[in-house]
Structures are given as C-alpha cells and as structure tokens.
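Risk register update: the risk of archive-format incompatibility is retired. Evidence:
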Amino acid sequence: MQRRLDKVASKSRQQFAEFERSGKANPSSKKSVGRIEEQSWTAAVIRSLHLVWQAVKGLLILGMSFLIAALWYCRRLYTYLAQLLKWWSRYLQKKFIKNLSVLAEVDLLGYCAREWKGETKQAIQMRKVYEELFWRHHIRYIRQVRGDNYCALRAVLFRVFSQGISFPSWMKERDILKLPEKLLYSQGCNWIQQYSFGPERYTGSNVFGKLRKCIETLKANWTEISGVKDKDERGNKCNILFSDESKEYKLYEAIKFIMLYQVIEAYEQMKNGQGHVPRLFSLLFARDTSSDPLSFMMNHLNPLGDTGGLQQVEMFLLGYLLEVKIRVYRLCKFNTEEFQVNYPEEYHREWHEIYLLTEDDHHYHIPIISI
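Archived output:
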C-alpha cells in the first residue's frame, strides 16, 4: 500500500510540473490541476491515516500482549491459590477430625463389618448382636466415642448436651460455683486438697481454684448449648466443644467433683439419719474401696481419667446427679437380663432418657435410633 501511495503522489507531481511549464491556463487545464491537487491531498490524508493506524496497531498489539500475559498470570495465581486453599481445608479437616472426641455418625452394620471381621466366636457373636440392634431396636447409626478413661463421662455429657437437656433441678436451686468453698469452709473437707485432675496427681491448696474454673466451664457451656433450639446448630456447637481438649477435660473434672459433692451430702444424711437416701448410695458405701467420701475419692474418682473409668455404681451416681435415665445396651451381656440396663434403677418419670451402647462395659458409643 505504501508503494501505491508513493506512485500516485509522484504521478501527480509530474503532471503538475508539465502544466506549469506549458504556461497554458485554459479552463480545462485548471480543472485538471484541481483534480491533481485533490488527488495529492487525498494521498496525503491516506498516508497520514496509515501512519496513525500503524502507531495504533502497535499499541493495540502491545496492549493485547500485556492483557494476555496478565490473564495467564492471573490464571496461574488462581490455580495456585485454589490448590493452597484446598490443601489448607484438608489440613483443618484432618486436624478437626483428629481432635474430635465424638465422631460423626456412621452406618451401624457397616461399622460392625469393619470392626468384627473374621470367624472367631466373639466376632460371630458381635455381628449377631449388631444385627439384633439394627432390626429389633431400630438402631441405624452409631457415633464412636474416643476410648480413653473419660469415655463414659464423654458419651453421657455429649448426649446430654446434644439433646439440649438443661440443668437438673437441684443445680437450679443452688450456685454450683460455690460448691468447692462450701465443702472446705462449711463442712471442713480439707482432704479435698488430695483431689487429682486425671493424670495430674496432686495440686495442693490450688485445687479449689482449679475446681472453680472447671465448674465455670461446665456451667457456661451447658447454659449456652442447652439454650440453642435448632438441633443442627446445637450439634455444631457440641462438635466444636468436644474437639477442644482443654475445655472438654474441664467438663469431666467438674462432673467428677459434683459426684463427690453428692456422695458427701448423702454420707452426711445417712450418718445423721436425715431424709431418704437413694439405694445407690447404700451400694456405693457397701464397697470396701468407697466406705466413706475420702476413700471414694482416692480409690474411684482420682483414677478416673487416668488409670480407670466409671464402674456400674458410678454410672448409677452419674445418672442420679444429672437427673437422666441412662439406658445402656451391654453387648457383652447379649441374651441375658442385663443386656439392657438403666442407670440409675430408681428414676423419675419426667427425667430425660439417653441411650448408649458398650461392648465391654468400659468403652461406650452413642447409638442413633431411627424408627
């Protein structure tokens, strides 16, 4: 195109020069000169437009190249951030699941098939028991509970919180935050300084301050969760609470101390012949290892969470102080009268009911009934 423009301009200049040399200015020649000037101006405009287009085209090419490079960079950055977010999400999920002490519900028979493989006598018996639970008792799912020495307390408290069960009536009538000081100053129980917080053997005079913090944690979280009406939201709060080891263990130690408080109260009533004392306390004090509150604390409560779990008598006591009927399927007692038991045996009709199952009377899981 450039050569074409140059050729037109050269031809116009030659024709104009010839007309100037001829000196003839007739009308027809004037028209020819006008056409030649017009052609020259047209060629100049076209040339200018061409130059402008060349400059603009260069800028457009540069801009498009920059835009493509920016889009490519953004795409790479987006891919990198997406992979980083995915990795972080998996990390948090694994960490959350690892810390979660009560796992999400799984299919009951699927759980049984994974846990009880083989053809041993015990495996065959357990598969039979789980089928019985599935078909006759309408238990479709199970939530596994971490099997340490807090297992029974964890299963019961998780059930109480997740069902939105509020404080028992006796707790509403008194300030449980003052129980440690009451036992120390009103009843002179200085020996409570020997109380053990799970693996933490001895804390001395600091025991009352630690107990108060544990009870504060229990009261605050129980109040918050029981006040949530939406079941899913309440379940999420329970999952968060029971994945926080520090808070979780404070709950258990608070319940342990409240169990001790109930034992001391019952012991004083029985010693003074005051009022009716439930039968479970007679069973508790009949044991050589818990004939009084001190021996009960040293031999049964202090090992709880460390070297031992809850025995059946303590399960009676736990249900009594929480004012719930704990119905347990004892799989090791299948086809006997003790296959289903209630803790405590004496309970009020208005008490809430929670369900647990155990294979060995030590590790407890949460069954989900679906009718």
